[in-house]
Write a structure and sequence with these properties.
Elements (H helix, E strand, L loop, with lengths): L7 E6 L8 H14 L3 E7 L20 H12 L3 E4 H6 L5 H6 L12 E3 L2 H9 L2 E5 L4
Length: about 140
């Protein structure tokens, strides 16, 4: 099936930044897709990919800060960045609501990412003409 100007994508990232190339490859694809006139409906982080939404990530100053790169891209392009709640909680990533729910000392979700359930992934599969997965190298 040839791509058309009306193609839209849901991107699913399962590889962690600094442990795989998945976030970098997905961002390069997203930028190219938009430049070619396509649409990104949402980005869904699952498994270790949720580390991309951590506000506590602090890479060395001479390395690209992939969480900030993604946050800036999503905000500028007004694309929803969804973090799987089950994957996030298992990996210690929480927003203010989950912080209160579990009576935790703080929250660490980077804006504009939002925590949600797998229903967001399903909705993306339905709404988008294509769903692409960017996995870690394991």
């Amino acid at each position: 099936m040839a791509a058309t100007d009306r193609d839209s994508f849901t991107l699913v990232i399962t590889g962690a930044p600094y442990a795989s190339q998945a976030p970098q490859t997905a961002l390069a694809f997203a930028r190219a897709a938009l430049e070619a006139g396509h649409r990104i409906d949402r980005v869904f982080l699952y498994g270790d990919g949720v580390h991309l939404a951590s506000a506590l990530s602090t890479p060395p100053s001479d390395e690209t800060h992939w969480p900030r790169e993604w946050a800036s891209f999503l905000q500028t392009q007004e694309i929803p960045g969804i973090v799987c709640i089950a994957s996030a909680l298992r990996r210690g990533l929480v927003d203010e609501s989950e912080q209160r729910r579990y009576e935790l000392a703080s929250h660490n979700l980077l804006s504009p990412f939002q925590i949600a359930g797998l229903g967001e992934w399903v909705e993306g599969r339905i709404k988008s003409t294509r769903t692409l997965y960017f996995h870690g190298g394991n």
